[in-house]
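Late entry, evening session. Most of the bench is empty. Finally got around to the prediction I had been postponing all week. Sequence below, unchanged from the version circulated by S.P.
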Amino acid sequence: MVLKFKIPKSKAEADELINEIGESQKELKKIEDKFKITVAKLKKDTERKAGSIDRVIKKRLIALYGFFIANKKELTKDGKIKEVRLPSGELEIFLTFPPTVNIKNEDLVVETLKKTGLSRFIKEVVNRKAVQNEPGAVSGIKGISLAQKERFRVTPNTTMESTIEDTKKLKKFLP
C-alpha cells in the first residue's frame, strides 16, 4: 500500500496535521467503542440463548437418566450389555478409566508398601500409575483407595455428539 502525503512546510501546517490525527483517533475510538458494545451485546445474547438451550439439554439428560435407571434391568438385558441403542441414539452408563488413586497418610502407605515387598509402587512417593495398573496387589494396604466416577452418556444420531454427566450429579434431580 502506497501512502501519499504532503510534508508540512510550516509549524501551522504541522499543528494542523497533529489536530487531524487527534480527530481521526477520536473517530477511530468511537468505532472501536461501538464495536466493543456490539460484541458485548452479542456475547450476552448468545450466552443467554446458549444457557437456555443448555438447561433444556440438562433437563432432558436428567429425564433420560431417570428412565435408564428405572428400566436398567430391561435395557441392559440384566447387565449383559452396557450401551443401549434406540432409534434416535444411544444411552450408556460407564465408569471413568483409569480409576483415580487416592492416598491418605502417604508416609504410612510408603512404609507399608516397603514392608510388604511392594516397593514397585513407590517412586519418591507412591507410584499412582503402577497402582492403577495393579490395583489388586495393593487392595489390603491401608491408606490406598481407588475411585472411579460413574457417568451417563447420551449420543443423538443426528449429531453424533455425546453429552456426558456424572450420575452423582444427575441423581440429585431425581425424585
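Two things to note before I forget:
The CA atoms of residues 42 and 48 lie 10 Å apart.
The beta strands are 83-86, 89-95, 100-103, 144-147, 150-156, 163-166.
Will write this up properly tomorrow.
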